[in-house]
Amino acid sequence: MQDDSNILAEMNDRSREVFRRVVEGYLESGDPVGSRTLTRSMSEKVSAATVRNVMQDLEYMGLLGSPHVSAGRVPTQLGLRMFVDGLLEVRDLDAADRQKIDETAGSNSDDVGGLLDRVSTALSGVTHGASLVLAPKHEAPIKHVEFVSLAPDRALVVLVFGDGHVENRLFTPPLGQTPASMREAGNFLNALAEGRTLSELRAVIRSEISKRRQEIDVLARDMVESGLAVWENPGEQGERLIVRGRSNLLSDDTSEADLEVIRSLFDDLERKRDIAEFLELAEDGEGVRIFIGSESKLFSLSGSSLVVSPYMNADRKIVGAVGVIGPTRLNYGRIVPIVDYTAQLVGKIISDRNQR
């Protein structure tokens, strides 16, 4: 098959206009677009039969499809991708949308989690889709680490950061751990931790454990690795995915089959199974990216689209992401600037707070 990027360039003006109008009509209504509808809006006067022939050619090229017996056409996933890449006109951000997003940043609270909750709620309200916000991990230097035994199968790890932030996390310790092994694990970590961020500490610990495997008591080593896994688990609070607006994906005419795949999608998100993939999607490049249907590992079964953008801290390092999920017939031209603006706003707020 020829290179997708050349297909649009090789189309004549009439084919390109028919293709664009079918996609725009579908994105607006969700319904197949027929030849008679198109003849009324074409820039040149053509017959319905001529338009039908063009649509058949576009279908043969894999850009349009016939959903059922209807004479109308809808864009395929390939067609939507080509439209988004080559013909999409991104609007300026609407002033009312900007105001609703700006209002989420109005609080002077230092609670980043609360801020991102509000951002996610506003994003889903403005876009009428489901919103995803990946909160950043706390990356201030560590001051102190301590393990506390609560029961044979439950322990608490306390992490105190240099900026005063404290995180407590429950985890399941290795079998046979003792107060002595917990103290030894804590001492080992504290000797390495001070002045390092959690990410830096992980790398150092792995190196130290391999170098000093004989010196560190086996139980203490297991405690260190088990306690660290608490912060590495992407489903935990340190790097959490905030999902709002699930109901926006469910309409009165949603089919039972579609309901099932949407439930499956949100079950995955609830278990945070794909949170790492979500950030990977955003990290591949700056700016907004659009994933349609099976292009995204997250939503290959759901027939959904994802519009996602990373946000950065003051050091221009990607620390999180914001996105919107909706049906493949999202209003991409409107959603893209909303996601872009929200990501920039969140990045600025987080950078400003970390510099206080």
From TrEMBL:
Keywords annotated in UniProt: Repressor, Stress response, Transcription, Transcription regulation
Signal peptide: none
Pfam families: HrcA (PF01628)
Keyword Transcription: yes
Record keyword Ubl conjugation present: no
InterPro entries for this protein: GAF-like_dom_sf, HrcA, HrcA_C, WH-like_DNA-bd_sf, WH_DNA-bd_sf, WHTH_transcript_rep_HrcA_IDD
Domain Heat-inducible transcription repressor HrcA C-terminal: 115-336
SUPFAM superfamilies: GAF domain-like, Winged helix' DNA-binding domain
Role, per record: Negative regulator of class I heat shock genes (grpE-dnaK-dnaJ and groELS operons). Prevents heat-shock induction of these operons.
Membership in a protein family: Belongs to the HrcA family.
PANTHER family: HEAT-INDUCIBLE TRANSCRIPTION REPRESSOR HRCA
Name by which UniProt lists this protein: Heat-inducible transcription repressor HrcA
Organism listed in the record: Lacimonas salitolerans
Lineage, highest ranks first: Bacteria, Pseudomonadati, Pseudomonadota, Alphaproteobacteria, Rhodobacterales
